[in-house]
Amino acid sequence: MGVATYPPGATFGPRRGVDFEFVWLIAGDAEYRFEGTTVTAPESSIVLCRPGEDYFRWDPDQRTRHAYFHFNVVGIPSDWPRISQWPLVRVPPEGDVLRPMFRHMLTWQMRGDQLIRQLTAGHMLAAFLTGQIATQEVSHDKLPDAVEMALHHLYKSLDEDPAKAIGLDDLADAGAVTPEHLCRLFKASTGLSPAETVRLARLDRAAVLLARSNYAVGQIAEFCGFASQFHFSRRFKEAFGMSPRDLRKKLAEGMTPPLPKLIRRFQ
User: What is the mean pLDDT of residues 239-245?
Assistant: First the structure.
């Protein structure tokens, strides 16, 4: 599971999926094709991918950002429709259950209970199929205000331009504190320095693109704001324990994509 950001006009696939996957269009529209059926997936919609050949064409006019997670279905209730009749897309209203549960899955992916993840995925699937998706928004735990504001600025900046330079002064200005004080707040509340946080945020995005796009390593390095492919590969290996090329090789052999290095994800 994770979050991916694509440049305008990018595509993903064709691929032959072997499991199920929920995809949440956080920003931008998409066109989704499954086994010859094509549907539109507007911004905020949830796509249910199932085993078979599928393909995504992302928004041609703006960056597309989506969250996703994979799961398996080992049995379904007798009164549910056949899998071939399951809807491919739902457009949830305000106050729906699907997006808060999606955020819950992303927030607890590295430290949460496995049974809770399974129950959450099952709840999401049942709600998606039945259309019973009305609820209220759920907020995340709060960090110090300056850190929250700096992180909001970081993710907003990367959403707008993943290659944009983001310095300590930029984050301190966003947090309305001095650079020195921001460093102390970050270290105390997250265990990371602001610079480490920016670098890991870029590497997390790069890892998703390595797993979920056809872009070359050098292109991904450029998209994610690294000075060179060499610098990107060195930093990536420090964070994930393998080079970008080794990661792609292992993914092709069936390895599960690596978890994000930043536990906190702000949507």
Answer: 94
Coil, helix or strand at residue 75? coil
Q: Which pLDDT score is estimated for 267?
A: 41
Q: Cα(126)–Cα(77) distance, rounded to whole angstroms?
A: 10
Residue with tokens 């993914």: 251
Residue 139 pLDDT level (bands cut at 50, 70, 90)? low
Domain ranges of the chain: 2-92, 145-252
Q: How far is CA 58 from CA 32, 63, 66, 151, 214, in A?
A: 9, 8, 10, 26, 14
Among 39, 32, 26, CA closest to 12: 32
Residue 158 CB neighbour total at 10 angstroms: 21
What H or E segment, with its residue span, contains residue 266? none
The pTM score is 0.55
8-state DSSP, 78 = T
246 closest CA partner among 205, 210, 214: 210
227-239 pLDDT tens trace: 999 999 999 999 9
The answer as to CATH 2.60.40.150 being correct for domain 2-92 is: no
Rounded to an integer, what distance in angstroms lies between the CA atom of residue 198 and that of residue 224? 11
CA distances from 227 to 114, 161, 182, 221 (A): 39, 15, 25, 8
Residues whose CB is less than 8 angstroms from the CB of residue 52 and which lie 6 or more positions away in sequence, other chains included:
16, 17, 34, 35
Antiparallel, parallel or unpaired: β 64-71 and 11-17: unpaired
- CA-CA distance, 192 to 263, in Å (whole number)? 11
Q: How far apart are the first and last CA of the chain?
A: 14
**According to CATH, what is the number of the domain 145-252?**
1.10.10.60
